[in-house]
Structure formats: C-alpha cells, structure tokens
C-alpha cells in the first residue's frame, strides 16, 4: 500500500493520539482485496476513563464560549475537510470498500456539510421569553446536555462521526465517538481536523472498540447522552442501558423500507430510484427501499429496464473512478447476504438478476434482484443490508399501503407516481420517518432524518437535531409581590 492507512495510534483523546496496546487488536481489512491495511486496539477500561475525563473536563469551557465562536471552529473544520476531500475519500474507501466514485462526493463532503450547517446554527441558538400576567415572565435557557457518546455503524464512518459530532458540539456538548470496529479509521481524521480547526482538547474524542466498549460508555455515570447508529437489536440493548441511567438517546437503526411504483410512474425514473435505493454503497444503506412494490401493469417493463440498467454497473477496483459498485464491507457481511439469497431461492422467489459471489480475494457480490416476492418471505421481512432487491406485485393503493406498513421498521418509504394527489396521500399514510416522492435516499443536512417504530428515536440533521442535543431550563421571574397561603 502506498497510501498511509495506519493511524498514529488507536484513540484520540484530549486533543492527541493515545495508544494502549493492552486492548484487543482490531485488524482493518480492505474489502476489495482482503488485505490488512491497519491495526488498532480496542479501548481498555483505562482508555475509556481517560476519554470520559477529557470530555467532562472540556465541556464547561466549551459551552461557555459564544455560539459564534464554537460555530467558527466547526466551519473551519468543514473547510479543512473539503480541502482534503481526496485523501479522506481514499481513506473512506479503504475503511469501507465503497467506490471512490461515491466516497469522493458523499462521505467527507456530507460530514463537511454537517459541520458547516451546525456551525452556522451554533450562534443562533436561543431560549425564549414568555410574558405572563402582572409583569411576571419566564425565560428559557437552551443548555448543553454535557458529555455525549456517539456510536457508529460501519457503512458511513465519516458521515456518522460528523452527523453526531456537529450538532452535539454546536450545542456546547463534548463528544466521545466510538466508530464501528469494522471501520475505525475515518473518525480519527475528523478528531484530528477539529483540533487543527481550533477545537479545545477534549471536545471531540474517539475511542475504538467492539460492542463491550460501546456498552461501557453507555453505562458510564458521567455520560449524559447516547446517540447510536446501528441495528435494531443493538438499539434495544443500548436504549435499555441508557434508560437505566435516564440518559437522553438518539437511535438511528435499521429498516426494511418500502418503495411503491404505481403504473403511471415514469419507468426509468422509478428504476433509477430503485437502483439508488438498493445498490448505492453496495446496498449497505439503512434507509434503502428494499421492498419494491410494483403495480402489475408495469411489472414486466420495470424488471426488463432494471436488468438492462444493471448491466451498466461497473464492478471492480473501488479506487478506479469508473467503478460504480464495490465489494461488501466484510466477509462476514458477504456471508450474511449470501445466506439471504439462498433463503430467497428456497422460499420460492424468482432470481431475476445476479445472486452470485464474484470470485477473487475481495468480498464482491453481484447486484441481485428477486421478483415474485411475497410479504411473508424472509427476504421481504428482514433487513439484509446488502445489494438485494425484493420486487413484490400489487394491484391497488389501499392494499399496497397496508402491506408497505406491515413491518416493525419505519425508517423510510418512497412512492413513484405522476399523480400528485395520490403521491401526497400515500406519503401521509406511510408509517416511516423519512419519505420520498419520485426520488429516493436523498439526505440533505437541512432536512430531518430518522425513523419511526423500531427504526429509531429522535432525528439527526436540520434544526430538529438541536432538540436532541440540548435541553431547556425554565426560569420563572416574579415582578409582583409573592404571596403565600400562610
Ligand atoms: P451493529 O448494531 O452491529 O453495531 C453498531 C455499533 O454498535 C457498533 O459500533 C458496535 O460496536 C456497537 N455495539 C454493539 N453492541 C453494543 C452494545 N451492547 N452497546 C453499545 N454499543 C454496541 O450495526 P452495524 O452492523 O455496525 O451496522 C449496520 C446496522 O446499522 C444496520 O441495521 C443499519 O440499518 C443500521 N444503520 C442505521 C442508520 C440510520 O441512520 N438509521 C445508518 C447506518 C446504519
């Protein structure tokens, strides 16, 4: 490897790289080749303690700075990230295997967007004034929560590190971020850049580790808030552990989102939506519309066009800017997805496209489409988290909406139709937090993002995130004489 993938040390605490090789080793594997490109160590209890102390120690002073000053630091970090987009994107590709064609426009840039947006909001955060009879009034102070823990999934390591860090820091909190053990590299760069941009030591810390490190952080007495991006089973554990300490939570969890294509839809647009919502990042996106309900009238046209378009996928070396479809993140994830493909065939779905592993050292799998999928099949019920699309038939609007909502998940949902009234009616009926009309998977920082039902609690991005990283203190001010009954 000519590119430097090995970080200076495993953790970033109190403004500097910190190592403790007593922690279990975590090998970082480049998914395109299976090569080990770096090694870090899981945090020991001493490292966890050190991170919490650093974050606690920095918090009051960080909160006491003016919002404008805090915001300036975040915006400066955003500028540095944009300047270094190329090297950060290459690192993201090593960490995840996602093609550079994607990482160069969707990862560091999305992290920079969050730092810029919340940097801009930081100086505009205010409480309110509420006038009461007799001249009395109430004012509210918007205060930081304190020390926030962010725990990341492996599919968007830079983005998740920033989506959690930016609003937390804008509100005057400090953060300890634990990346996924599968993709530990990118968050360290975010921490380094924040310090370079002027963030005081301890404001943004990174510790590595498996689930046990996450659990130790969640249950730590000196942690006030936990924001997790991960699967529903992990979310249940983390939510329960946080509840024990009455800590604030944000839960960004999994999904099995529906995409409904009515027969008046523009077929090419619907196919584009289905491709973006199933095969971007090799299908490893939480909000993917993996249950594609296609109205009977256009089923054949949709499947034919989809297969034609999939032929254009360029599968190969993720560093080649022409490559548009990379490997799965890990051998483990590849095996999980292969298991679901086998299940789809066993349960009687028609394999319309792909379905096979691509031979070689990397964890490559063909983009895969199943048609004739029914609601009870495993591939229509469980989150696969890979490039596997399930196409289901439907006849009418009421029927498809009920079927679309018949899931424990509620992260996202989309509809393709030319009928504007129907589009809004269907979206109003979706039980999902993030919906799309004639589009799929857009996530601009200005818009709230998050799930309902088992898919999550709280929202990331937009002004809504401020509510989840701050709390209000109410101050009653009496101007008239105070009266007591005795
Ligand atoms: P995961 O649930 O296995 O792990 C997520 C993180 O939680 C990891 O950092 C892991 O180390 C940590 N963890 C595991 N057990 C823990 C515990 N008991 N206490 C504290 N932390 C613990 O998920 P994953 O495989 O890394 O990511 C894939 C999942 O993430 C999918 O379900 C996907 O839908 C979801 N996801 C959701 C969003 C969203 O915004 N809603 C975004 C990306 C991914």
Overview of the molecule:
The structure is a single chain. With 486 residues, the chain is of the alpha/beta class. Helices cover 38% and strands 20% of the residues. Helix 6 links the parallel strand 7 (147-151) and strand 8. It binds nicotinamide-adenine-dinucleotide (NAD). Nicotinamide-adenine-dinucleotide binds at residues 151-155, 178, 180-181, 210-211, 214-215, 218, 229-231, 234, 237-238, 252-255, 286, 383, 385, 411, 451, 456.
**What is the CA-atom radius of gyration, in angstroms?**
24 Å
Categorize the overall geometry.
globular
In helices, the fraction of residues equals 25-40%
Total helical segments: 16
N→C terminal distance: 81 Å
Structural class designation: alpha/beta
Beta-strand proportion? 15-25%
Instruction: Give a count of the beta strands, DSSP E runs of length 2 or more.
Output: 20
Low-confidence stretches: none
Largest sheet: spatial strand order: 14-15-16-13-12-17-18
**Average pLDDT score:** 98
Largest sheet: 7 strands, mixed
The distinct bound ligands, ions and cofactors come out as: nicotinamide-adenine-dinucleotide
What's the topology here?
Blueprint (H helix, E strand, L loop, with lengths): L10 E3 L2 E3 L6 E6 L4 E7 L3 H20 L2 H17 L1 H12 L3 H7 L1 H15 L6 E3 L5 E8 L2 E5 L5 H14 L3 E5 L7 H11 L7 E3 L4 H8 L6 E5 L2 H13 L3 E5 L5 E4 L5 H13 L11 E5 L3 H12 L20 H16 L3 E4 L14 E4 L6 H4 L6 E7 L2 H9 L6 E5 L3 H10 L4 E4 L18 E2 L6 H5 L1 E8 L9
Parallel strand pairs: 7-8, 7-10, 8-9, 10-11, 12-13, 12-17, 13-16, 15-16, 17-18
Antiparallel strand pairs: 1-2, 3-4, 5-6, 6-20, 11-19, 14-15
Helix pairs in contact: 2-5, 2-7, 3-4, 5-6, 10-11
Nicotinamide-adenine-dinucleotide binds next to helix 8 and helix 9.
